[in-house]
Specification:
Helix content: 25-40%
Strand content: 15-25%
Distance between the termini: 11 Å
Number of helices: 11
Radius of gyration: 20 Å
Number of strands: 18
Largest sheet: 7 strands, mixed
């Protein structure tokens, strides 16, 4: 079968190759991949900025598909069933994080697309416990976006958000836009912020429900936000860009005793004026990945029709077009870049 392989830690060094189709072992399931999305971490691996993965590696961890084969010990999964699978293949099951159901924080966790071959291929092998069967209300295209949406769901579980809150979402990438969707489902007033180069995505943020958008690198761009909040700033800041500018802008604008949540990530340190946190008594927390419960909640939210991902999708790529797809992601030509297999 064809698969997109990263051969080393060097920048680039990616190629489409023929590999052996996986066979399911004990408690394992082979899934026929139908749609797979490019994540920012995939791009970090491609660019040589992220080294926490085995090599050679089949890239990718966001996907949807159908059960193709099941191994010994797997019961109740019918061939052809529409499914998604969590990124985490295994965790230790013994540390405090695992005991509390927070396997995303387990120091010994392994993941598809990092420690195990990922989904930019025709078939992927996963552990049976990773799988979530899709309800009939969720099609396979929508399901391919569940992984990044679940990042947003997990993040918002770290804070308290009320319909009366004004929420600033910094960074209108796919997760930022999904965070806008989710905050609107919570009933909050939402402001989306990005740069001049993000204008197309900021327009999309308005389309999916943002009450106000800010172009942060334009003069006096924050005046409308301060006017909306009587000069106090937002109650909640959700930083989704993972950039130094976004982090410091968020801390600067967050109102006194407000909440700040770091969702966006990067592979290098950021210099932050930590005294803003002290002087304004800002409650700061972080968020990474997701848990099994987050996936169940995400599926229910989408099944109930509370969010609509369709505005985020406007084009599909075949795996043979992988280089074009990666460049489209890097150049922000598409909102959510999906492979169709």
């Amino acid at each position: 079968m064809k698969a997109l392989l990263k051969q080393s830690f060097d920048a680039g060094d990616v190629s489409l190759q023929q590999v052996v189709k996986p066979e399911p072992g004990h408690n394992e399931v082979v899934i026929k991949v139908h749609f797979a999305g490019i994540c920012g971490t995939d791009m970090k691996i491609y660019d040589g900025h992220y080294h926490a993965y085995k090599k050679p590696l089949v890239l990718g961890h966001e996907f949807s598909g159908q059960v193709a084969e099941v191994g010994p010990g797997v019961e109740g999964l019918v061939i052809g069933t529409n499914v998604v699978a969590r990124t985490i293949y295994s965790s230790c099951g013994k540390c405090e994080s695992c005991i509390r159901g927070r396997e995303n924080l387990c120091p010994e966790k392994t993941r598809i697309g990092f420690d195990h071959d990922g989904v930019f291929t025709e078939y992927v092998k996963v552990h049976k416990d990773q799988i979530h069967v899709l309800p009939k209300e969720i099609d396979l295209v929508t399901a391919a976006l569940l992984e990044p949406f679940t990042v947003a769901v997990h993040a918002l579980n770290q804070i308290t958000i009320k319909p009366s809150d004004v929420v600033l979402v910094i960074g209108p990438g796919p997760i930022g836009l999904m965070t806008v969707l989710l905050c609107k489902a919570y009933g909050a007033t939402v402001v989306a912020a990005g740069l001049e180069q993000d204008k197309k995505r900021l327009e999309l943020a308005q389309k999916v429900g943002a009450d106000l958008v800010l172009v942060s690198d334009q003069n006096n761009s924050e005046a409308a936000l301060l006017d909306l909040t009587d000069g106090q700033g937002p109650n909640i800041v959700l930083e989704c860009s993972g950039t130094a500018g976004g982090v410091n802008q968020g801390l600067e604008l967050c109102r006194r005793s407000g909440q700040y949540l770091q969702i966006g990530t990067r592979s290098t340190p950021i210099t932050v004026d930590f005294m803003k946190i002290a002087y304004k008594e800002i409650k700061v927390t972080g968020s990474i990945g997701h848990t099994k419960l987050d996936w169940e909640n995400s599926i229910r939210i989408v099944q109930d029709g509370k969010v609509d991902f369709s505005p985020l999708i406007d084009h599909f790529y075949y795996l043979e077009q992988w280089n074009e797809a990666f460049q489209a992601f890097k150049n922000k030509e598409q909102t959510k870049v999906l492979f169709k297999l």
